[in-house]
Amino acid sequence: MFTGHRFESLFQTESGLLYLSWVDKRDLEAHIEREEDYSGAAIYYAVSTDQGATFSANYRVADNSCECCRIAISPRGPDNIAILWRQIFCVTTRDHAIAVLTPDGQMMEMGRASYDEWQINACPHHGPSMVQSSISGDYHMSWFTNGDLHQGIYYGRYSVDTASSTDVYQVDSSAGAGHPYLAELDEQLYLVWKSFDGQQSLLQLITSTDDGSSWSDPVTLSTTGQASDHPMIVTTPSGIFLSWHTEEYGYVFQEITDSSINLSDNRAD
Questions:
Q1: In this structure, what are the phi and psi dihedrals at residue 23, rounded to the nearest 5 degrees?
Q2: How far apart (Å, rounded) are the C-alpha atoms in residues 269 and 264?
Q3: Predicted structure pTM score
Q4: The domain over range 1-128 is classified in CATH as 3.40.50.10490
Q5: How would residue 266 be classed by pLDDT, with cut points 50, 70 and 90?
C-alpha cells in the first residue's frame, strides 16, 4: 500500500542506540479503505543497534497526530527517549503530547504537554522544540500556538514524574512569530525564533540561567527583508551555534554564546 512518511527526526542515545521517529499516514489509508473516519496521521518509530545499518520493526506511538509538524526528541536515560509532537485531542484540538519510548517498542509514559485549546481542522506547520534539563531532568519545551487560551510562542517545562507542565511563559505574541528552537549548554538555556515586524524578519534570542524560571530580554541577532528559513541550533561541547539560511546573507553557521554578534558579518560562504 502506498502511503506517506514525513518529518523524520533522528536521535542517538548515550548507549549508542539510533532512534528514528516520523509522521506516518498508513493508518489513515487503512481507515479510508474500510470507510472509517480517521483524523490526522500517526507517529511511528524504529530503532537501530548497529549505527543505522539495520532497523527494528516499525512501532506505533499514537494515532491522530498532526500531519505536518516536526517531532522533537530528547534523551530519557542511556537507552530511552522522550518525543514531543502536535497531537489531535477531542476531534479538532491541536495541542502537544509527550511520550517516553524504549528500544523494544514499549511506550512507558504518554501525557498532554500543552493546554492551548487550539481549535483548527488543519495542520499549523509549526512543530515544537524540546531539550532535557541537566539540572532537574525535566523537559524544556517551546512551541507556537493560536489557541483559545494562548496565542504566540510559548515556553514551558514538563515533568515526566508528575505528568504535568509548569512555568508556561509567553515568549512572543506578535503576528508572524514562529518556529522556536531550544538548546542548553553549561546549565544555560538558549531560545531562538523568527518574528516579523511588518517589513522585515527578526532573528531573536533569549537566555535563561535558572533552568527556565526566568528569561532575559530578547536580543535581535539579525534582520532581513528578504526570504529566510527557520533558525536551528547546533550544540557542541564548546559552544552553541546557529544554523540559518537567508537570501540576503546566504548560509550562516555562527556561535551565539556571545549574543552581541552581528550575523550579517558572519556568512558561511
A1: -90, 130
A2: 12
A3: 0.92
A4: no
A5: very low
